[in-house]
Each structure stands twice: as C-alpha cells, then as structure tokens.
Amino acid sequence: MSGIGRRKRWARWGWLVTTLTLCVAVIAGAWNSYRSASRASDDLIRGEAHTLRDVLFATTHPGAEGPRADFDSLVASLQDAGLRYVAWVVGTDGVVVASGGQASPVPFEVLPASSDPRFVRLDSRIRVYFPPPRPRLGSLLERFRPGFTPPGLVLEFEPVVAADLVARARRSLFVAGIVAAVLMAAGFLFWRMSQRIEENERRAQEQRRLLALGEMAAVLAHEIRNPLASLKGHAQLLVERLRDDAAAHKKAARVVEEATRLEALTADLLDFVRSGPMDLRPVDPAALLRASAAELPDAGIEIDGAEAPDRWLLDERRFGQAVLVNLLRNATQASPPERPPQARVALENGTLVFIVHDFGPGLPAGSEERIFDPFFTTRTTGTGLGLPVARRIVEAHGGCIEAANAQGGGAVFRVELPRKDT
C-alpha cells in the first residue's frame, strides 16, 4: 500500500473512531444527567412534602383537637401541586380526626414516636407520616395532660416536580440515544462511502494500468505472431528432414516445442486484450461442463450436474474455453494422479454456480486475490494470464469468481453467474 493509500485509510478509520467517541460522549453525558436527576428526585420529594406540610399548617391552624379547615377544599386547591390526600391522625391506634381527598387503599402504619417524617412510596404516590407539630409554649400543660396524644399529619401526594425532572432527563437520554444512533449510522455510512470511493479509485487505476498493458500486449502479440509462425513452420520442416540424425532431430524438436509455447503465450495475450460483447445463448450448463472436461480426457475429472438447470444464458465458446477448460486444466495439474479433481454445477438461490475442487497443495497464503492479477503465476511454465482472462469472461457475464483453500486440502474455485433476461 502506498503512502497516500495508508494516509487515506488512517483518515477513514480516524473519522469512524472520532464519530464513535462523540456518540459515546453524548450518551454518557445524557446518562449522567439522568442519574443525577434520579438522585436529586429524593431531595425534591422531601422538599415538596415539607412545602405542602407548611401550607397545610399555615392554612388549617391546628388546635388541640384537630384542624380548623375543610380538608377536601384544601386538597382541591392544591391539586395542581400534587396533593391527593391529607389526614389528621390522633392516637397510637391511628384514629383519623379529619381528612380530605382520596386515600390510597394501603392501610396506615402505626409508627413509633419520632421527630423525623417517614416517607413510603405507593405506586405513583408518596405517603408521608409527619410527627405532631411542636406545641406552643402557652398550652404545654393542656397538650401534655394525661391520656392526650398530639395529632400527626399524613400526606399523600404525587411528586410532580421530581417526576417532571426525571421525565425530562429520561427524554434527554432518549434524544441523546437517537442522536448517537444517527451519528453512528452517518459515520458508518460515510466510512463505507469513502471506502467505496477509494476502492473505485483503485479499480480505475487498475483498469487504466490493464488497458495500457493490454494495448502493449496486443501490439507485441501481433508483431510476434507472424515471424513466430514462420519460425515454427521452418522448424517443423527441419524436424522432418533430420529424422536420421537423432541429436539434430532432438534439437529441432526442441525449437518446435518452444515455438509452440510462445504461440500459446501470444494466444493468451490476445485473449487477454480481446473485448467485445458476449454472444449469450441458452446453453445446458451441465453439458458444457462435461464437454470442457472431455478436452482433458486423461484427467478423470468427476462431474456433478444433477442440480444444474436445463438452460442458462452463456457465451458457450468463450466461457467454456477461457473459464471452464482453464480451471479444469489447472485443477488437473495441481491434483495428484490418484485423486483427480472434482467439478460441480448447480442452481443455488437463483444463481448458477460452478465449483472446481482440486486436491493439490492449495493456494499460497495471501494469494487468493493475487492469482487473478495478470502475469502472476505459481508455476515456472505458466504465463499468468489464464485466470485473469477467466475473471474477465466471468465478469462480462455479470458474475464473479473466487478462490480459497478447502478445509480438506487443495483449492476451490467458485464461479457465480446471476440470471440474465433474454
């Protein structure tokens, strides 16, 4: 990877990490606010309770025998403040002297004497047991006469302020979650877009390189082809004339052999640069696979076409020769004689799939994509153009070709062709 490519990659990952960090910070801030509001709600509940108590004491002016006001009217006037029920309780048995509003069905508790209020949560309400108010100095004897129990106040209210605070914090947390999700989705989307743009740029550069390479290869192939044909023809005539001289005959045959190899190379070069539309016609894929295997009669290739469709649109000549024959020949050369390669064609989820499995040493690590590069080969006698040509033909059909090492050993080539309408 070039320095520019590495910088683009780091910039892309940096953008994604920054976005994720920002999302985490937004959610963490909202969550911290929610937790703070939840913790502060207890203090707010206590404050609301004491405020309601002070209002009641200021309004009722309680005396020794109880309040001097209509509690129903008082509860109604404090309805917006959250007050739902109030009772004036006397004695250890919890006798209600006066009350107003609608009480919760939960019975009152008989609490020991205490100077602190007792808070009990009842679903959406808070019940508060307030101790009796401190008596005035002038009526101490009256209030603490034998058998007299000072009255206490019981409130039931809905913590409006605290609930509103918690609800606001919860809404903020929800909004922060949505914002974080949108940011994460946008960050991932932009990351994918930049990745695709970079991939498209790489492919465009590769196409330009291959185009220039193809033009050069086409010129060289045409320039070499004619003199090479002449050289091969004269070498063949020389082989015929030197039958009586074994040493000279062997050398002349070697010239013919090398000329044939160069002729195959020029043919591969021309196939590599050849372009033009596919001649798509309905073809029997299983029959095409068997016909391609028949061109390698000594290979003993196992063919499975039981799940193949009856017809598929293919360029029979170019797909058969450049793809199937090439893959089967490579698999035969890689597999040991005692274990011939296997080939299968089937219809999978509406896609035509060809699979060629050899039992050789497999693909070198990291070469699964490089083997489709022009002139890349792992054999000393290979031209490195067979698989690139096969990929071009497959892609011209709208499909793809992949290579991988099989779990049981060897390599597997998989060709997938989508259905094309006539």
What structural keywords apply?
single chain, 422 residues, alpha+beta, Heat Shock Protein 90, 5-stranded antiparallel β-sheet, 5-stranded mixed β-sheet, 16% strand
SSE arrangement:
Elements lengths: L2 H58 L10 H7 L5 E8 L4 E7 L16 E5 L2 E6 L9 H4 L8 E6 L2 H82 L4 H28 L7 E3 L1 H10 L7 E3 L7 E3 L1 H19 L7 E7 L2 E7 L28 H11 L3 E6 L5 E8 L4
Parallel strand pairs: 7-9
Antiparallel strand pairs: 1-2, 1-5, 3-4, 4-5, 6-8, 9-10, 10-12, 11-12
Helix pairs in contact: 1-4, 4-5, 6-7, 7-8
Task: Give a brief rundown of this model.
This protein is of the alpha+beta class.
Could you explain the architecture of this structure?
By secondary structure, the chain is α+β, with helices and mostly antiparallel strands. The chain has a domain at 281-418: Heat Shock Protein 90. It has helices at 3-60, 71-77, 140-143, 160-241, 246-273, 285-294, 316-334, 386-396, and strands spanning 83-90, 95-101, 118-122, 125-130, 152-157, 281-283, 302-304, 312-314, 342-348, 351-357, 400-405, 411-418. The strands form 3 sheets. The chain has a 5-stranded antiparallel sheet with strand order 2-1-5-4-3. A 5-stranded mixed sheet has the order 7-9-10-12-11, with helices on one face. The chain has a two-stranded antiparallel sheet with strand order 6-8. Strand 3 (118-122) and strand 4 (125-130) form a beta hairpin. Helix 4 runs antiparallel to helix 5 (246-273) and helix 6 (285-294) packs across helix 7 (316-334).
